[in-house]
Amino acid sequence: MIKVIDGTKKGRKLGYARVSTDKQTIYQYVDALNDAGCDAIFTDEATSAVAIDRPGLQKARAQLQSGDVFVVLSIDRAFRSAIEGLLFLDGLHKAGITFCSIYQNVDTRTPEGLKRFTYDVADAEYERAIISRRTRDKMAAAKKRGQHMGRPFKLTPRKAKYAHRLIVQGGMDLMEVARKYRVAPVTLERAFRRLGLEFKE
């Protein structure tokens, strides 16, 4: 979301917001940035914290000029890692751009503010790593017990078994059955393997 902004205006406030999934709404972040007096707001939607490609952030950085203020709602909504956050901030400072986080309310131009920023980006990275580890452990434990984690299968075991009978006993070919169930042939093959059903094309 990019507003047309006046490139000649001094001391502009450019805001940035990101949400991780398409189930999250970005409106509350945009409202908060508008309330903070941002002249323009850039967003990345359905973009994970570790995504390399964030066009909204990249466009915001390209628009920022000396004397401007880069505004985020929270430090953890802007950067993938502690090192990225510190390098980004260093680039802003060298270009004469001020950083502002609404929630943390820190002035990174001071030693105290820089220390707080460093801690916050490191904490955000640590938190993401812990969540990721818990998810991996949960999935491994579920897999060990034969439970499926993640997106639901497109074919239930009952449908997969019936599709298998159509091919093996009914003489239908794989493509025909796949069209019947509106899935890709490879989806059928995976379902057969998952259920231990022998299949030779």
Would you mind describing this structure in some detail?
This protein has 201 residues and is an alpha/beta fold. It has 2 domains: 13-127, 3-Layer(aba) Sandwich (Rossmann fold), CATH 3.40.50; 157-194. Helices cover 47% and strands 9% of the residues. The protein has 7 helices and 4 strands, in the order βαβαβαβαααα. The protein has helices at residues 27-35, 55-63, 82-94, 111-144, 157-168, 174-181, 185-194; strands at 13-18, 40-44, 69-72, 98-101. It has a 4-stranded parallel β-sheet, sandwiched between helices. β3, α3 (82-94) and β4 form a beta-alpha-beta unit. The longest helix is centred in the middle third of the chain and has 34 residues, at 111-144. The mean pLDDT is 83.
